[in-house]
C-alpha cells in the first residue's frame, strides 16, 4: 500500500471524523487547548494509538493526511517542537509499558501540551555507557526515594513530568539493576540548574535529585527491567531524527546557499567546489532519509534509519564550518554570547557562528556518533561486539 | 518520487542474479580477462536475448521489453556486483537511448532498435567512455554527402563485441548520428585499466554510414545528450552494485579472518570504518534510485510531450532528471572507489593479489569514476542547474 | 633549513610556559572572557615587558631583543596552547613587522619601535584580522595632506588594548602607513567568535596621524605585506600550539575516563583517530617551523641585501618565505580546527559546556582559520609561486 | 653537533681514508666488486659499523659526506635499492644479534651486493599478527628442520640468504616460542613461486619450505627469543621508510604536477583546488620527514618516524588516485598487464594506472596502516592496549 507517499489520499472514515471535529469545534473561535482536547478525544491525535488514547488503531502512515486536512482548515496544532520529548519518547514508552491508569493519566495532557515532559537518563559519569548510571532509587513501602544527578536535560525547567531511570539493585550486573519511573518535576528535592553550552545558551539543564519520593504507581515496567524499557525509548528517539521530510536544499545547506547567492564578492573557485560537494551531500542525505520514510510507509523499515543521525550530524557540522570560512571577516563575529534559556532547539537558527557551535552537539546528544557506528556495525553488518568485561559483574564491583 | 524497488524490479533482480551466480562468478571473470575474448558472449546471449535485457529500454511496439530506466538501473546494480563482462551499458543503454532519441517512425531506426532488442545484433555508441553529458557535439568524425565517415574515436566501451556502431559525426548538414557496421571500422584494442570493460580505438576511413533521422523537434545533439545522461545516471547504479559487493565481501571476510586470537571484524577501528562505508553505500543507493526514477519520469514525460504536448511538465522533468543524474553520478563514483579501496586494504595482502577478485572491482570503480563524466564535471553541471554560480 | 628548536628557543619556551602556568590557566581565561577586560594587562606586562616579548623581533640597537621569527613562533606556540589573552600578535608581530618595513633610521619609526619594544606602549596594525598577504593595499582609510585620517577599519585584533595604531591609508601621495594614537580613533567592540582575541571596529574621523616613511627602496605596500606575511606564517605556530593542547588534553582525559568498564582511550576507533590527529599535529609543526625558519632567513637576507647588496639571495629568500608561509598557513589551519573539533567530540557532553575550556580552543582555531588568509587563499597564492596555474 | 645537516663538511680523517681508497683503487679501472670490497675493508661501507665489519665506529651521520665524496669521484656504489632488505633489515640485525663468525661471514658480501638477502616473515595466516606464525622449525641434533609457507617475499628469486622466523615451541605463548634463523635460499626444500599483484607484475613471491635443514650455527639470537630479534628488524625497516631526503615536489606529486603543467586542456577549477591541496600535503610530509632526519642527525630521534610510513602511504594513494581522474580518458588506459618480475621496486615509475594500483600496497606492506596507528596510539600517545586474549595462552591452544 502506498499510504504515506505522495499522492496519498485520506481514508473516507478519517475524513468524516476530521470534518465532524471541525464542525463541532470551529478552530477560529474555540480556545487552543479545548480544540486539542477534542481532537484527542476524537482519536485524531495520533491515529495509530488505540481508541480512547487519542487514536483509532489505524496505520501510522494515515496521520499525515489528517494533519494536512486540519492544517488546511487552519486548526491549531500542539506545537510538536516544544513537546518533542513527550511525543517522541515518553508517549510510546507509556503506551507500550504503562498501566491503563498511567496511560489514562498521562497521554492526553502530554499530547495537548498542557504537561511538558523531559528525560532524566544521562549522568556525568554515564553518557555513552548509560547503563553504568549511579542515581539510586531505594524502596520505602509504596514509594521510592531517589538520589542522584542527571545532566543534559532539555526542557527540565518547563517540564511537569520526567521519564527517569535509576539503579534499584547494585548487586546485579549493571543492565539488570535499573528501573524506569515517571518523576514529578514539581516534587520536593528536584532541583533544576541551567547548563550553559559553548554557544552561550543554556538549552539544557542539570537536575539534582535529593530524597525525591516517587510513588510505586509511577513505575513503568517491572522492577529491574528499566534497561529494556529505556532501550525502547531511545529507539524511538533515534527513529524520530530525520523523521521529518526536508525539502531539497532545506536545513543547514539552505543558509550556506543563500549566503553564496546573496554575496558574490565572497566567491572563489575553491569555495565553489566545496559548496557544490556539500550541496550534493545534503541532497543525497535528504534522499536517504526520504527512502527510509518510504520504506517505513511501505511497512518494510530498512536499517537506513540507524545511519541517518550520523549523516545529519556530519553534514550539519561540515556545512556550518564551511559557512564560517565562506563568510570570511563576518565569520569572525558572533551574534550574542548572552546566556539565554531558549524554549525551542533550533539547529539552523541565529547566526553562522551559532550554527557552527550548536552543530557540534549533533554528534553527541541522543547517542554519540561513536555509539551509533557501533550499533550499525553490530546490528546492521553483524560484526562481533568488542570483548566486554562489564557484562557479568555486579554493578557495585565494576572498576571506576 | 519512488525510491523503493517494485515487485517487478525485485523479480528482475532475482532473475539476473540467478544467471550471474551460475555463469559469472569472480573465478569465471578472472579466468577470462587475459584471454582474447574478454567479453562473455554466452552470458550475454542468456542475459540479453533470453532474459530480454538487450531490449529492456526498447518499447514493446519496437520489439523490446518496454521497461524503464528504473529497471535498467536494477540490472546494472547486479552486473556491477559481478563485474560482468557483457555489453549492457554500451548496447542496451547508450546505443538504445541514442536511438530512442531519433525518429522511431523511421524504418531504419526502428529496424536497428528491433535488431538490438532481440539480441540479433549488439551495438555501442561511438564516443570515448569518458564523454560526459553537456559537452559539445564531438567533431572527431566527419561525414560526407554520401554518408561516408572519416575520423577516429578513442577509448570506446563495448566496441570489441559490437556488430553496429552509432557514430556521432559532423555531416554536410551539421551534427548527425550514423549507423555504421562494426566491420567497416578499424578497431584497435586498448590495454584498459578496467579489465572487465575493455576499450577499443575506432578508426573510420570513409566507412559507409546511414544517417539516423532525429526525432520530430529533436536533433542529433539532443539524442546524444539523451544517451549520455542516461548512461551517467544509470552508471550510478552500477557503482552501487560494485560498492555493495565490496562491502559485503569485506564484512564476510572480516567475520572469518582471525588475528591476535580475535575475529578481525571485532576490532572497533575497522567496525567504525565499515559503518561509515555502509552509510555511504546506503546513501549512494538512494541517490541512484532517485536518478533512475527521474530519468524514467522524464522518458514518460517526454512521451507525454509528444502525445499530449504537455510542454511544461516535460521541461520540468528534464531539469529534474539532470539534477538527479548530476547528484547521483557525482556522489556514487567516489563511494564505489572508496568501497573498493577499503575492500583491498581490509583484505590485507590477499586483496593485493591478482588471484583475488577485489582488484577487478577496484579497476571497475576507478574507471567508472572517469566514465561518462568525472564527479567534478557533474558537480560543475549542477552549478547552473541549482543556481549556485561560480 | 633548520626545523628543530635551538637551545635558546627551548629556554624561551620554558620561560613563557612558566609564566602561563602561573597566571594563565584555562580557569583564569574562562573567568575573564565575559568581563569588560578580556585582555589580561598584568599578564602582558610580565610577558611583554619583563620577559621582553613585546620587543622580541625588534633589533637590539632599536631597543628590542633582536630575536628572529623562529623565536616568535615558539612564543606563539605557547600562547596558542594557553589561548592567552595578550596582544602579542597585534603588537609584537603585526605592528612591529610593519614598522621594521619602514625606514628605521627615521626618528619617528625608531621611537615608536622603542616604545613598543619596551612595553611602554602596545600597538596593533589597523587591518581586519581576516586580511591576507598578497591583497591590494586597503582603500578603507584616506589621509589628507595634513595627515588627518578618515575611514573605518572593521574587525581589528588587539585594538581594544592598543595605545598606538599603525594604519594603512591612501594619502595624497599614494599608500602610506600612519601612526595614530588609539585615543584618536573611535573604537567599537565587536562580539567576536574568538572570546580570547576579541576584535573591534575602528572609526577614524579626521584623526591626526603621522606618516611613517618606508624603508629605502621599499614602500608602504611592501611594509604592510611584510607584516601580513609574518602574521600568517607565525600564526601557523599559534595553531600548532592550539592543536597540541587539544591533542594532549584529549589523550589525558581519555586515559582517565571510563565507560563500559574500560578506559575510553583503549577503544581502538578512538586510538586510530588520535594517531591520525597526532600525525597531523606533527606535520603541522614541521610546516610551521619551516615557515618561521624561512621568514627568519628572509629577514636576515633582507638585511644582507641592504648591507651587502646580495640581491639574488634576497629575492630567492623572499620567494622561499612566501612558499613556506602559504604551505604552513594552509596546512596548519584545518589541523587546529580538526584537533579542536576532535577534542570537543571525544570529551563528549562535558566538552560542549561553557565551563570546560575546550570551546575556547575551538573558537580560537576557527577564527585563526579565517585570520590572515583562509587556507584556500593561501593555496591560491601558491599556484603562482610554484607554477601550477589555474 | 650539526653533522648530517646541510653545510656539513667531512671529517679530516675520513677524507684521508676516502682519498687513500681512491688512490689505491681507481674507480675508472678497477672492477665494481673489487672496488666495493676494498671500500668495505677500508671501513667506508657504513662508517657507524665497527672496524673490521665495514665501518670505523664513528657516528652514522658522517656517512653522507663519505658517500658524497665518493660519488663526486665517480666511484661505483652497491646499488642500495637492489639490496635494500640486506642493508636495511638483515645487516643491523646480524650486527646486533649475530655471533662474530656470522658477522664475518655475512656482512661483507651483503654490503657489496654479491649476496642478495630476502625476508621470510609473513605467512598467509600471519600478517598483522606476525607472532601467530605457523612455520615450524624442529631441532635435529645440530640442525633445524623447517616446514611451512611464507608470503610477500620480495627478492626471493634473486636472494642467496633469507632472514627467517619460525616456531620452535608451540607449547608456550605465541611470542615466546619463535626463533630467528638465517636460511640458505639454495638449500634443498626451498621453493620460490612468483606472487602476482593487482598491477600485473610479480614483484613478490611465495616461498614454500619443505624439510629445509638449517645448521644451528645459522641461528640469530637465543632459541625462543626470535620475536625480540624480529622486532628489532622491523623497527629498522620502518625507520628506513622516509629515510631518503626527497626534493620539494619529489615523489608521487612530481608526476601529477608534470601532467598539470604539460596538459593545460585537462585543467578545471575543481581539479586545481585539489592539486594544490595535495601539493601542500606532499610538501608538508616532506618537511615532516626532513625534521625527523634532522632530529636523528642531532642525536635526538623523535617519534615522527613512526608516522611517516602512514603519511607517505596515504599521500601516494591520494595523489595517484587524483592523477587518474585528472587524466580523464587517458586514465582509462593502462600500460601493460603482462606479468613481469621486476628486480627493483619503483612506486613512482611506469604509467599513472600502475602508480595508482601499486600505491595500494603502501599501506599493507611492511606493517599495515592499521597496525601503525595502534603503535602510534600506544607507544607515542601512551593509550592503553586493547584487551588481549592471546598473550598468555600456549600458541597451540589459540582459537583458529
UniProtKB/TrEMBL annotation, chains A, D:
**Entry keyword annotation includes Chloroplast:** no
Describe the location of the Acyl-CoA dehydrogenase/oxidase C-terminal domain by residue ranges. 224-381
Keywords for this protein: FAD, Flavoprotein, Oxidoreductase
Where's the Acyl-CoA dehydrogenase/oxidase N-terminal domain?
A: 16-114
Q: Does the keyword Flavoprotein apply?
A: yes
Gene3D superfamilies per UniProt: Acyl-CoA dehydrogenase/oxidase, N-terminal domain, Butyryl-CoA Dehydrogenase, subunit A, domain 2, Butyryl-CoA Dehydrogenase, subunit A, domain 3
Return the Pfam families for the record.
Acyl-CoA_dh_1, Acyl-CoA_dh_M, Acyl-CoA_dh_N
Alphabetized PANTHER family for the sequence: ACYL-COA DEHYDROGENASE, ACYL-COA DEHYDROGENASE FADE34
Q: Which family does it belong to?
A: Belongs to the acyl-CoA dehydrogenase family.
Recorded protein name is: Acyl-CoA dehydrogenase family protein
Automatic annotation (TrEMBL), chains B, C:
Which family does the similarity line name? Answer: Belongs to the acyl-CoA dehydrogenase family.
Please indicate which superkingdom the organism of origin belongs to. Bacteria
Which cofactor(s) does the record list?
FAD
List residues of the Acyl-CoA dehydrogenase/oxidase C-terminal domain: 226-383
User: Which UniProt key words apply to this protein?
Assistant: FAD, Flavoprotein, Oxidoreductase
Positions of the Acyl-CoA dehydrogenase/oxidase N-terminal domain = 7-92
InterPro entries from the xrefs?
Answer: Acyl-CoA_Oxase/DH_mid-dom_sf, AcylCo_DH-like_C, AcylCo_DH/oxidase_C, AcylCoA_DH/ox_N, AcylCoA_DH/ox_N_sf, AcylCoA_DH/oxidase_NM_dom_sf
**What's the protein called, per UniProt?**
Acyl-CoA/acyl-ACP dehydrogenase
Amino acid at each position: 500500500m502506498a499510504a504515506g507517499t505522495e499522492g496519498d489520499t485520506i481514508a473516507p472514515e478519517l475524513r468524516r471524523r476530521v470534518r465532524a471535529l471541525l464542525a463541532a469545534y470551529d478552530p477560529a473561535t474555540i480556545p487552543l487547548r479545548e480544540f486539542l482536547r477534542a481532537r484527542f478525544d476524537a482519536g485524531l491525535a495520533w491515529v495509530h494509538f488505540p481508541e480512547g488514547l487519542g487514536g483509532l488503531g489505524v496505520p501510522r502512515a494515515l496521520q499525515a493526511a489528517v494533519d494536512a486536512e486540519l492544517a488546511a482548515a487552519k486548526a491549531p496544532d500542539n506545537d510538536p517542537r516544544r513537546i518533542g520529548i513527550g511525543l517522541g519518547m515518553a508517549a510510546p514508552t507509556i503506551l507500550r509499558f504503562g498501566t491503563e491508569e498511567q496511560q489514562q493519566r498521562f497521554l492526553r495532557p502530554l499530547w495537548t501540551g498542557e504537561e511538558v515532559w523531559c528525560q532524566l537518563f544521562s549522568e556525568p559519569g554515564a553518557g555513552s555507557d548509560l547503563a553504568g548510571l549511579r542515581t539510586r532509587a531505594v524502596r520505602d513501602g509504596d514509594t521510592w526515594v531517589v538520589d542522584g544527578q542527571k545532566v543534559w536535560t532539555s526542557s527540565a525547567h518547563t517540564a511537569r513530568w520526567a521519564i527517569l531511570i535509576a539503579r534499584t539493585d547494585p548487586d546485579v550486573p549493571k543492565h539488570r539493576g535499573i528501573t524506569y519511573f515517571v518523576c514529578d518535576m514539581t516534587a520536593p528535592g528536584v532541583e533544576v540548574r541551567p547548563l550553559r553550552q559553548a554557544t552561550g545558551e543554556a538549552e539544557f539543564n542539570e537536575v539534582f535529585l535529593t530524597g525525591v519520593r516517587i510513588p510505586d504507581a509511577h513505575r513503568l515496567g517491572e522492577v529491574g527491567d528499566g534497561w529494556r524499557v529505556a532501550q525502547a525509548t531511545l529507539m524511538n528517539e533515534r527513529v524520530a531524527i530525520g523523521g521529518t521530510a526536508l525539502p531539497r536544499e532545506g536545513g543547514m545547506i539552505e543558509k550556506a546557499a543563500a549566503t553564496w547567492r546573496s554575496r558574490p564578492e565572497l566567491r572563489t573557485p575553491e569555495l565553489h567546489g566545496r559548496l557544490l560537494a556539500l550541496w550534493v551531500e545534503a541532497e543525497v542525505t535528504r534522499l536517504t532519509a526520504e527512502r527510509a520514510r518510504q520504506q517505513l510507509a511501505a511497512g518494510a523499515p530498512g536499517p537506513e534509519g540507524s545511519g541517518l543521525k550520523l549523516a545529519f550530524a556530519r553534514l550539519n557540522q561540515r556545512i556550518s564550518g564551511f559557512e564560517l570560512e565562506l563568510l570570511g571577516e563576518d565569520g569572525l563575529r558572533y551574534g550574542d554570547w548572552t546566556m539565554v534559556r531558549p524554549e525551542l532547539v533550533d539547529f539552523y537558527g541565529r547566526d553562522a557562528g551559532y550554527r557552527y557551535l550548536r552543530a557540534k552537539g549533533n554528534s553527541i546528544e541522543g547517542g554519540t556518533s561513536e555509539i551509533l557506528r557501533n550499533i550499525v556495525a553490530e546490528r546492521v553488518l553483524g560484526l562481533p561486539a568488542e570483548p566486554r568485561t562489564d557484562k557479568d559483574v555486579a554493578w557495585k564491583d565494576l572498576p571506576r | 518520487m519512488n525510491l523503493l524497488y517494485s515487485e517487478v524490479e525485485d523479480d528482475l533482480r532475482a532473475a539476473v542474479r540467478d544467471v550471474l551466480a551460475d555463469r559469472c562468478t569472480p573465478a569465471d571473470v578472472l579466468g577470462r580477462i587475459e584471454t582474447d575474448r574478454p567479453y562473455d558472449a554466452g552470458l550475454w546471449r542468456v542475459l540479453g536475448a533470453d532474459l530480454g535485457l538487450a531490449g529492456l529500454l526498447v518499447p514493446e511496439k519496437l520489439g523490446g521489453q518496454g521497461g524503464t530506466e528504473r529497471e535498467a538501473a536494477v540490472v546494472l546494480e547486479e552486473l556491477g556486483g559481478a563485474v560482468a563482462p557483457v555489453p549492457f551499458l554500451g548496447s542496451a543503454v547508450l546505443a538504445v537511448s541514442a536511438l530512442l532519441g531519433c525518429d522511431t517512425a523511421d524504418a531504419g531506426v526502428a529496424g536497428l532498435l528491433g535488431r538490438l532488442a532481440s539480441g540479433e545484433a549488439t551495438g555501442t555508441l561511438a564516443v570515448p567512455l569518458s564523454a560526459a553529458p553537456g559537452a559539445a557535439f564531438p567533431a572527431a568524425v566527419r561525414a560526407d554527402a554520401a554518408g561516408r565517415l572519416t575520423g577516429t574515436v578513442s577509448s570506446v566501451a563495448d566496441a570489441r563485441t559490437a556488430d553496429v556502431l552509432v557514430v556521432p559525426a559532423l555531416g554536410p548538414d551539421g551534427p548527425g548520428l550514423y549507423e555504421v557496421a562494426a566491420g567497416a571500422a578499424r578497431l584497435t584494442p586498448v590495454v584498459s585499466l578496467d579489465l572487465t570493460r575493455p576499450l577499443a580505438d575506432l578508426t573510420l576511413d570513409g566507412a559507409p554510414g546511414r544517417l539516423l533521422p532525429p526525432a520530430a523537434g529533436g536533433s542529433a545533439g539532443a539524442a546524444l545528450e539523451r544517451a549520455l545522461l542516461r548512461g551517467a545516471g544509470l552508471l550510478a547504479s552500477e557503482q552501487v552494485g560494485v560498492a555493495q559487493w565490496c562491502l559485503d565481501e569485506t564484512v564476510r571476510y572480516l567475520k572469518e579472518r582471525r588475528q591476535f586470537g580475535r575475529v578481525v571484524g571485532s576490532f572497533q577501528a575497522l567496525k567504525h570504518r565499515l559503518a561509515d562505508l555502509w552509510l555511504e553505500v546506503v546513501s549512494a543507493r538512494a541517490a541512484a534510485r532517485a536518478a533512475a526514477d527521474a530519468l524514467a519520469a522524464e522518458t514518460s514525460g517526454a512521451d507525454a510531450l509528444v502525445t499530449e504536448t504537455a510542454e511544461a511538465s516535460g521541461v520540468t522533468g528534464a531539469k529534474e532528471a539532470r539534477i538527479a543524474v548530476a547528484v547521483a553520478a557525482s556522489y556514487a563514483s567516489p563511494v564505489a572507489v572508496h568501497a573498493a579501496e577499503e575492500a583491498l586494504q581490509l583484505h590485507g595482502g590477499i586483496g593485493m593479489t591478482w588471484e583475488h577478485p577485489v582488484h577487478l572491482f577496484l579497476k571497475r570503480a576507478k574507471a567508472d569514476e572517469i566514465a561518462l563524466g568525472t564527479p567534478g564535471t557533474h558537480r560543475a553541471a549542477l552549478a547552473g542547474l541549482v543556481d549556485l554560480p561560480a
